[in-house]
Design goal:
The protein contains 2 helices and 4 strands. It is α+β, with helices and mostly antiparallel strands. It is globular and about 35 Å long. The site of iron/sulfur cluster has 14 residues, from helix 1.
């Protein structure tokens, strides 16, 4: 697990700098291979009507867990798990989601 500094958006260790954050989206290229769903640390991925889908309220781009979105890493099909331009979020917002999902009681 990666521990992220919350004091700066220019952390030299994580390289997050001025990156724009967005929740992720699974496109129609999905072949339902089942690789991503068990890898999501936030249980954000589930089967939809026809293909897998991501719950944007639970997706943190894996902030708090991994350096990069793990669903993108395990997906075997290019351009299937992509950033959702309609869900631009700040790094702080993704961090808050991580904290609420895993540390709120
Ligand atoms: Fe889950 Fe991470 Fe993919 Fe978001 S980016 S859906 S948190 S595996």
């Amino acid at each position: 697990m990666v521990n992220y500094c919350r004091q700066s958006n220019d952390c030299p260790r994580t390289g997050y700098g001025n990156k724009r954050y967005m929740a992720l989206l699974i496109t129609r290229h999905c072949i339902n291979c089942d690789m991503c769903e068990p890898e999501c640390p936030n249980q954000a991925i589930s089967m939809g009507d026809a293909i897998y889908q991501i719950d944007a309220e639970r997706c943190t781009e894996c902030v708090g867990h991994y350096d990069t979105p793990t669903c993108q890493q395990v997906c075997p099909i290019d351009n299937t798990v992509v950033t959702d331009p309609d869900r631009i979020e700040s790094r702080d917002r993704l961090w808050e989601k991580f904290v609420v999902l895993h540390h709120a009681s």
